Amino acid sequence: MVWSLLPVDPHSGEEKYYIYRKGTYKVGRKGCDIVISKDKGVSRVHAEIIVDEMISMSRLPGGSNILSRVRIKDSSKYGTFINKNHASNEKVHELPSKETTLKDGDVVCFGTGNAAYRFSFVPFVVYNMFCSEPLAVRGKVSSIG
């Protein structure tokens, strides 16, 4: 499974980011895993995206989805917002411990709001048509989540 942060405005010139494994990813203006240059209100280290586990999005019996646990923690001056223009708007910097859980489809705004990204699940498909060592391919794919 793969998570992505995709610019809401595809013509913004901002990069697309993909998360393949659990860990902590720093978001900020400079020297971070996810670099945001569009908004001057983005701090040097603005937030952290914390992936506690990577689990398949497959359906369980009974209809519930298994989701990875992904949190976002704000450490900025101007704030981080989830779904800023919707009724379910969350100001991460005002929440207890300045963090919340991200869900598939959430729009995350960093800084003054000019840098907006959609947090989305991306299906990860591997085709093995001509490999003489299928177990080797399976091991490589498993290593990235």
UniProtKB/TrEMBL annotation:
Predominant cellular place of this UniProt entry's protein: nucleus
UniProt superkingdom: Eukaryota
CC terms in the record's Gene Ontology section: chromosome; Mre11 complex
Keyword DNA repair: yes
UniProt-listed GO biological process terms: double-strand break repair via homologous recombination; mitotic G2 DNA damage checkpoint signaling
Chain ranges of the FHA domain: 25-87
UniProt-annotated location(s): Chromosome; Nucleus
Keywords: Cell cycle, Chromosome, DNA damage, DNA repair, Nucleus
Gene Ontology molecular-function annotations: damaged DNA binding
Family: Belongs to the Nibrin family.
Official protein name in the record: FHA domain-containing protein
